[in-house]
Each structure stands twice: as structure tokens, then as C-alpha cells.
Predict the 3D structure of the following.
Amino acid sequence: MQQNPIPFLDLVTPHIELEQQLTAVFQKVLTSARFIGGPMVEQFEKHFADFCTVKHCCALNSGTDAVRFALIAAGIRQGDVAFTVPNTFIATVEGISQAGAIAEFIEINEQTFSLDPENLEKHIARHCTYDAKSKTLFSKRWQRPVRAIVPVHLYGQTADMDPIMEIARRYDLVVVEDACQAHGARYFSKKENRWRVAGSIGDAAAFSFYPGKNLGAMGEGGAVTTNDALIDRTVRMLRDHGQVEKYLHEIEGYNGRLDALQAGILDVKLARLSDGNAKRRTCAHYYTERLSSSKKIVCFREPSWAECVFHLYIVRVPNRREVQRSLDNEKIGTGLHYPTPLHLQKAYVHLHYRSGDFPVTEKTSAEILSLPMFPGLTKEQQDRVAATLVAAVGG
Ligand SMILES: Cc1ncc(COP(=O)(O)O)c(C=O)c1O
């Protein structure tokens, strides 16, 4: 019997469910002709700032610009070094490079897939010098000052932020969270004895509203969140040609604004985000329950300090190519996030990394497989994914 396909991601159903509200947004934009800026953008910014428990949110046209503008606004300048991880979407490093900085990679933690604070400490001890007089950390690799850390909250789970923030404060480094995959994820800060929301922990954070994200636009979108009024003010200038008021340009900026239509759509979808995240968590726990009896499949496990919002649900499997093909034969959609680490990409040969430089990243990138994950995924669909996967790895 022909089985129904199980998509990797279902973007049709949630939009059809919201058809009336989304059409009303379009009607409003149509009749007001406020296409750029205006009350719809401001309303979304306020609601998303509240959601992230921060004072400011500046809506932008993409997550890539969010990383770039946040770094520039936080004072990163040409030739500064920024630490980040090699297993992320290229946009993290594009944002760093396009802010004029140089990305220096830190190995990830094998359990969390994110920046490992211990590796960060070791890296600083071995590959940096600290000038106490100028309070500046220098990269030996580049003979340039290190000014920023960009931890990536990959797959919907925050990095271990307490020690990262502690290291950043010790060396006077700016922290820009790449929260592009982590809308609503939470981190338990032992230091503060409370849960913190992704996007509210560092000096600033970057979000993407690319359609497939937990909060996705019907087009491109992004935002910078921060509690720092000066960073927010600068990001607002950067997104709008450096203007403080019409035709008064304090700096040279960019065209990085979010359309009013997208802001209205995002505002409608934001009301459902927490519910969608909760459903993703339920689906993730069900996958883990169904798959953990297999000795060959390694499931993604949340540390006690994380509340992951499962933008992606990944497993590690042997013979990934064959396993992915078996799922494909059963019409089950899968993804690879990400198959080639950034230090091995042609785009970054000028950073002079080699194969073997990041063994954990390289090993995991060859084994990870992303399974179907979206709030409307049913138990029956998950049962079929799990059964097919277990059979494909051979038990
Ligand atoms: C980790 C990460 N950083 C940055 C981005 C860039 O976001 P955008 O595609 O909105 O530019 C993305 C989105 O794909 C991402 O997943």
C-alpha cells in the first residue's frame, strides 16, 4: 500500500488555519498603504520584545543582517576577532565577516552541539594573550584584538550561557546570541537562580523569521533584541540608511527594514508561538521515547539547564547516507544541519583551517540527521518515522 508522504516541515497547514487573520493583515496594509515602518512594525516589535523579556526589539529584513547590525552596534570594528562555532548556518559567520570582523572558531560540546565553555577557556589559554593594561584579549592567530563571542543556540537550544557570559565579562568581550533558531528557548541560569529567555542573556541577540523558523514570516525577516538602549538606537539607524530623522544621516547604514506586511503576519503568528513550541517539545520527547531503545541511534538530550524549543530534532546515526535514503524511499522528509562544517567550506579557505581542526564538529556533522519536526506532526507519523529509522539502522 502506498504510504502518505511525511514532510520534513509543514508550512501549509498553519497558514491555512490562520487564513482569516492573515488576510485581514493584508487588507489593512492594502487600505492604509503603510508598507514600510509604521504602527504594524512598532506593535510587533513591542510584542516580540515582551516575549523575549527585553526592553528593545528592532525588526529587520533578515537574521543575517541582525547578526551583522548587532555586532556593529555593539562596537565591533574592522579587523576585530569574534569567537563562534564551526557548526552553524553560514549566516552566523557572514554576519561576523560583514561587520568587518574575523571569525575564530571554537570546538562545540558533543552533547549540546553548541559552543563549549571549557573549550573556550582552553582556547583562550592556548591561543590568546591578555594585555591587562589595555584590558584587551589578543588572538595569536590573527594578532588582532578579540572583541566578541557569538554563541549559536542551535536546533532551538541555548548554549550554556552562564560560563560564556562570565568569560566575556572577564575579558571585556561583547556577546551577541545567535538566536535565529531559538525563539522562546529558555536557559536556567544557576548564577541568577532563574530561567532566562533566549535573546535576553547577551548584550544583544539576533533572530531570523525565515519561513521555516519556529516564528516565521511569509517572506524574509529578522530582529535584534537587547536591553541596551544605545545598541537599539544604532541598529535602528543601521537598518534605515543611518538616518536619525528623514534625510539626516548620522552614519552610513543599510536598507535592512522589515516590511509592515511581514510584521503584521509575524504578530498574528507570535500569539501561537508558545503553543507551537510546547507541541514541538511533546513531539521531541515522543521521538526520544520511541528511539532510545535502539543501540545505534543517539538521541538529542536536553541538559538540565535547557528548555529546548526543537526548531529541529536531530539524531546521530551510523551510515547516514543509507539511512537517509531508506527514509526517503518511504517518503519521509529529512534534513542535514549541517553536513559540511564552516571551517571546511571553500568560502572560508582564507581562515586557514584544516580537516581535523575540530574533531567533534567533524564527527557529528557526518552522523547527524534531522527528522520531521513541526507542531502538527502526529503520533502516527512519528511512529512511522521511528519504525523506519530503527529498521534502517538495523535495530
Ligand atoms: C543559526 C542561524 N543564524 C543565522 C541565520 C540567518 O537568518 P536569515 O536566513 O533570516 O538571514 C539563520 C537562518 O537560517 C540561522 O539558522
In short: The chain has a mean pLDDT of 97. The radius of gyration is 21 Å. The longest strand covers residues 144-149.
